[in-house]
Design a protein that fits this description.
By secondary structure, this protein is mainly beta. The protein contains one helix and eight strands. It is elongated, with a radius of gyration of 15 Å.
């Protein structure tokens, strides 16, 4: 599958044995937030999963719905720095890559990123 580019995502992931430390930045301007009375609002879903060599899901899927309600100052700051996403994930056996999907629930707009585990920097346990 080709990565979906509608919502730009940058990610750095470091592997430590069977753990993956992920720091991602999601482009806030692509999230179609609405200004409602001075507060920037919107709902998005973030899905993280691992896949095996056959492309099938391996292990649990981590899915989160997030309601954003940003003040004008926070919105302006995140337009520059992006919306942060950080997680520590357990790598399931037979996993060969990690995938992150960010989607706008209202419009169906999505962005994805795929990183092969073999290309991730590794740190000691």
């Amino acid at each position: 599958p080709v990565n979906a580019p509608a919502i730009p995502i940058q990610a750095v992931a470091t592997r430590a044995s069977d753990r993956l430390d992920v720091t991602a930045t999601i482009d806030l301007s692509s999230l179609d937030l609405e200004n409602m009375g001075g507060t920037w609002t919107g709902e998005l879903e973030i899905v993280s999963r691992f896949t095996g060599a056959d492309g099938e899901r391996v292990g649990d899927v981590k899915a989160e719905k997030t309601m954003l309600r940003l003040t004008p100052d926070t919105y302006a700051s995140m337009l520059q720095s992006g919306f942060p996403y950080q997680r520590e994930l357990k790598i399931p056996g037979k996993a060969v890559e990690w995938k992150l999907l960010v989607g706008i629930l209202a419009s169906g707009k999505a962005g994805t990123i795929t990183i092969p585990l073999s290309q991730m920097p590794s740190t000691p346990k």
